[in-house]
Structure to design on (1020 residues):
């Protein structure tokens, strides 16, 4: 344990070691792909290089985690706390999973362009900055780096008009959201005299949020609301999720969402923990609306990918519900839920990608009928993912929901807890039919699944994810200690005395 | 017998073994060729039965409280432990489950012709889930088993069920889940309330019981959440609509397990959790009025609807609604006799209705119809089948000397002092039961043999006799000499009656029997 002096260039570099390592690695990958970018093998090479880069960054993260003190609320631009490390680790793992899923998919869809991986890695750098930002400007830079890369990734299938539509829609709405966010940052700066979250938190420490500060907070919530696709800022999500290549959709639903939620939680807790009275009712309404609209809209979808898109809106609602109490327990629940939702969605989108063709825009329930008999392992994997998303005991999805419910009940938000379980009940109406189709209905024709297989690398990612869904669903203690540590490193809200 | 059980350390490993053995049994089913799956499942369930029989002798009928308790930490930071144990009530339910299970497997040998590995695998998982519900003494553990059991049953109905199976499977799943999700929130709220006094979170059953008098105004809400979950499962009128669909569409073994075991989980939930936790609310005049009225309506309505069913399987399904109404009446009267009677009906209904579903399944395998109108005169063609059917039907009606009589008599006797009017009306349900079952018997086996398809049906073969004769033996035994069963249930029933007194002082520390294992 050595103190890292963030006032010196060396100290700052050390504090940003995972980001710096990944940045350098991206440059290497970029150079490599500019020479080799024509053949199938080149794409595969870039993929493996991307995995290596993420691994390198992960090692740097592990080193930093082991060697830096856990200092909550350090008044610097970059946080050195467990919340950052845990979230960064989660993001790196989900991104590595996305790379593994992408490798076979891109070859199958003839999207051989190794720049894909460069963009993906750039997005990861942006995410890492989002979760380490103690300063709203750093946060914004990270968010933009991530967003611009993901805009391009969403339109990566150049032959498809839907992919182009997704990219354009995502870009326009994203620009809009960034505008809100930036405006919010400006207003907060005007009210608090600083963009540093620590200073902002100290400035509003008595709950004395000025009107300008309130406006700033409101704009920040709107900006993040767009990014996490919460109602009423969700309208872009279905089209974008639907049109983008499926591994990109998976990446957006897991890593991008996790990064946005983590950054959002830090902003609320570091900057506005004393003003919980102001943002709690807003989040309550947004969370309830997201759960209601996301679940009801998912109920009437015919297309699986679109159904998962709406279900991701609903899950944004559950995650927001975890933030409502403003308690450390809620943050821990959110972090754990992000892990659960992340690995489950990663596997679910990978399987959907393997089952469909040409962007999977027309993969309906009828297209997975009888899958259990032709491809028992794929069917079992997808069934487990559906149960985990539903929140069924024995899966990580249940432990995540259980944790959110405990956080709500402990902080006397039993009404919201009831809303969460009722929303889960509605979600059974669209998760179960997938299982019904796969296991109980006959296949449309024999041999319809003969070429529907998970590519080798995706198989590894899905196998690990599904195994984790089960193992952490039965022994969540393995991951709970980390999410608890992460949550404990954030400044505590005033009214969290109740509970554990 | 007891010294032998003690010498092998039975009380330490018995309950764990009962829960793990079926799951271990899934492994050879996965690895073996499909044709071997059914025999593996049969051996596993028979082994389970033999292991569980030790409970019958090892159980100390004189002691109060839980026995064979085993505890191990599971998620210590949340106060969640793996805790299992049995008292008189769970003992009989566990033995009923392990006894029915091999018969359910054996009855599926011919009926299930495809995807056998999946089928028998799910049956074994279901066995663990059902036993877990009866054994769990940690509320989290109980909830997990309560829900996990849904999945295998959902698949069993949905894959091997009848024509309308998708609808029935999803309806079954969503109805049960709707109730239990609210119970989940109630469990969390109760845990939070309990931890406020004790300081540490704990989901232990005894902690909940000790905390229950201090819930104040929350109690009605919490009781409501528990009660709806259990009422759907029982099912009580008007939450019963999932039952005919699920029963009729499920394959024979599925219907048997639904009727014999799964429905009992609802009444078990009332006996173990809902009433002892909230006696003040549960036995308040308003709630008592509602429950007793709903029980009596269930008795009469179930019987009347059963009377007009053309489909014999649906007839038996509705008769369950009627029988379970008696159980609810007995539970709510909360006298020693009525509770003992309710438990006897729970066992007796498990045997007789299970047997009825098995016999209907056998008939369906022969004729591929369950329409009462297409039968008649079977007594001459298949006399053994007809004899077994008559005995089972008489047991279900409640003929003295067979099991149904003991339970219904005790319930009516025990409830009369508390609810004379309701008991009086309920007693007419016994007459209706005789009407619909005897009428069905007449149309099935007695009327003239006027359909040529029925003229050459084969009688029960050896396997089928093995399926039904143990049940018939059980019915006769319970009808003639129920005393050993009543003895074992006695202290648990007394304890329930004590707990159901609103003023009863709850122990602040768990009352453990001297020979129970507190930790391992």
């Amino acid at each position: 344990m050595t103190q890292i002096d963030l006032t010196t260039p060396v100290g700052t570099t050390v504090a940003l070691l995972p980001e710096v390592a990944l940045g350098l690695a991206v440059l290497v990958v970029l150079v490599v792909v500019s020479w080799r970018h024509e053949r199938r093998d080149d794409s595969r090479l870039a993929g493996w290089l991307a995995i290596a880069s993420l691994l390198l960054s992960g090692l740097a993260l592990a080193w930093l985690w082991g060697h830096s003190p856990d200092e909550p609320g350090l008044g610097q631009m970059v946080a050195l706390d467990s919340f950052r490390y845990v979230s960064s680790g989660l993001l790196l793992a989900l991104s590595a999973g996305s790379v593994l899923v992408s490798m076979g998919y891109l070859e199958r869809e003839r999207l051989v362009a190794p720049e894909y991986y460069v963009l993906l890695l750039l997005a990861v750098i942006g995410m890492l900055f989002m979760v380490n930002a103690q300063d709203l400007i750093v946060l914004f830079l990270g968010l933009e780096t991530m967003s611009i890369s993901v805009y391009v990734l969403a339109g990566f299938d150049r032959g498809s008009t839907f992919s182009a539509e997704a990219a354009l829609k995502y870009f326009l709405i994203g620009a809009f959201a960034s505008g809100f966010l930036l405006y919010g940052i400006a207003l907060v700066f005007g009210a608090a005299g600083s963009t540093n979250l620590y200073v902002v938190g100290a400035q509003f420490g008595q709950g004395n949020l000025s009107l300008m500060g309130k406006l700033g907070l409101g704009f920040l919530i709107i900006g993040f609301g767009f990014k996490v696709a919460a109602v009423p800022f969700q309208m872009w999500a279905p089209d974008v999720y639907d049109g983008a290549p499926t591994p990109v959709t998976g990446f957006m639903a897991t890593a991008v969402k996790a990064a946005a939620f983590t950054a959002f939680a830090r902003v609320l807790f570091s900057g506005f923990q004393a003003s919980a009275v102001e943002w709690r009712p807003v989040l309550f309404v947004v969370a309830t609306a997201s759960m209601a609209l996301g679940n009801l809209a998912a109920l009437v979808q015919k297309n699986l990918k679109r159904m998962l898109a709406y279900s991701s809106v609903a899950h944004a609602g559950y995650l927001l519900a975890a933030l409502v109490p403003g308690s450390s327990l809620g943050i821990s629940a959110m972090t754990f839920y992000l892990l659960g939702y992340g690995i489950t969605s990663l596997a679910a989108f990978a399987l959907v990608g393997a089952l469909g063709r040409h962007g999977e825009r027309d993969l309906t329930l009828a297209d997975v009928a009888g899958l259990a008999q032709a491809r028992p392992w794929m069917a079992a994997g997808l069934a487990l993912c559906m149960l985990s998303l539903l929140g069924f005991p024995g899966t990580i999805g249940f432990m995540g929901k259980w944790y959110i419910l405990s956080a709500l009940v402990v902080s006397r938000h039993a009404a919201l807890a009831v809303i969460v379980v009722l929303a889960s009940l509605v979600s059974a109406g669209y998760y179960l039919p997938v299982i019904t189709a796969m296991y109980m209905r006959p296949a449309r024709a024999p041999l319809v699944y003969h070429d529907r297989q998970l590519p080798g690398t995706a198989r590894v990612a899905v196998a690990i994810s599904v195994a984790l869904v089960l193992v952490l669903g039965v022994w969540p203690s393995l991951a709970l200690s980390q999410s608890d540590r992460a949550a404990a490193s954030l400044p505590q809200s005033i009214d969290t005395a109740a509970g554990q | 017998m007891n010294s032998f059980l003690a010498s092998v350390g039975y009380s330490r490993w018995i309950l764990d073994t009962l829960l793990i053995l079926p799951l271990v049994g899934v492994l050879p089913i996965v690895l073996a060729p499909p044709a071997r799956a059914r025999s593996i499942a049969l051996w596993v369930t028979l082994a389970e039965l033999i292991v569980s029989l030790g409970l019958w002798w090892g159980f100390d009928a004189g002691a109060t409280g839980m026995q064979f308790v085993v505890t191990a930490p599971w998620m210590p930071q949340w106060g969640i432990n793996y805790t299992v144990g049995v008292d008189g009530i769970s003992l009989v339910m566990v033995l009923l489950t392990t006894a029915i299970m091999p018969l359910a497997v054996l009855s599926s040998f011919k009926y299930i012709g495809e995807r056998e590995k999946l089928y028998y695998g799910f049956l074994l998982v279901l066995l663990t889930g059902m036993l877990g519900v009866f054994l769990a003494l940690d509320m989290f553990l109980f909830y997990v088993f309560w829900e996990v059991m849904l999945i295998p049953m959902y698949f069993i109905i949905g894959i091997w069920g009848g024509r309308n199976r998708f609808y029935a499977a999803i309806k079954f799943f969503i109805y049960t889940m709707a109730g239990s999700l609210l119970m989940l929130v109630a469990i969390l709220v109760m845990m939070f309330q309990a931890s406020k006094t004790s300081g540490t979170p704990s989901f232990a059953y005894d902690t909940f019981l000790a905390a229950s008098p201090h819930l104040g105004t929350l109690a009605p809400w919490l009781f409501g959440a528990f009660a709806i979950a259990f009422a759907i499962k029982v099912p009580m009128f008007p939450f019963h609509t999932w039952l005919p669909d699920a029963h009729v569409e499920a394959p024979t073994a599925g219907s048997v397990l639904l009727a014999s075991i799964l429905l009992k989980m609802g009444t078990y939930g009332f006996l173990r959790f809902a009433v002892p936790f909230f006696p003040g609310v549960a036995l308040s005049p308003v709630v008592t009025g509602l429950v007793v009225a709903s029980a009596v309506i269930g008795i009469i309505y179930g019987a009347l609807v059963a009377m007009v069913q053309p489909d014999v399987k649906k007839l038996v399904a509705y008769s369950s609604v009627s029988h379970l109404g008696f159980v609810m009446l007995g539970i709510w009267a909360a006298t020693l006799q009525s509770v003992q009677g309710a438990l006897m009906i729970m066992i007796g209904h498990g045997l007789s209705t299970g047997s009825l579903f098995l016999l209907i399944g056998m008939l369906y395998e022969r004729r591929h119809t369950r329409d009462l109108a297409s039968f008649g005169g079977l007594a001459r063609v298949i006399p053994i089948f007809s004899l077994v059917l008559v005995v089972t039907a008489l047991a279900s009606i409640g003929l003295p000397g067979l099991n149904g009589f003991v339970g219904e008599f005790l319930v009516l006797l025990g409830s009369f002092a508390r609810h004379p009017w309701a008991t009086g009306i309920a007693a007419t349900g016994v007459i209706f039961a005789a009407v619909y079952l005897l009428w069905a018997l007449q149309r099935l086996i007695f009327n003239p043999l006027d359909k040529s398809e029925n003229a050459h049906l084969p009688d029960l073969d050896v396997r089928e006799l093995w399926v039904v004769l143990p049940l018939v033996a059980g019915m006769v035994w319970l009808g003639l000499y129920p005393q050993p069963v009543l003895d074992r249930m006695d202290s648990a029933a007394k304890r329930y009656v004590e707990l159901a007194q609103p003023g009863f002082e709850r122990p602040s520390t768990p009352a453990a029997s001297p020979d129970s294992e507190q930790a391992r």
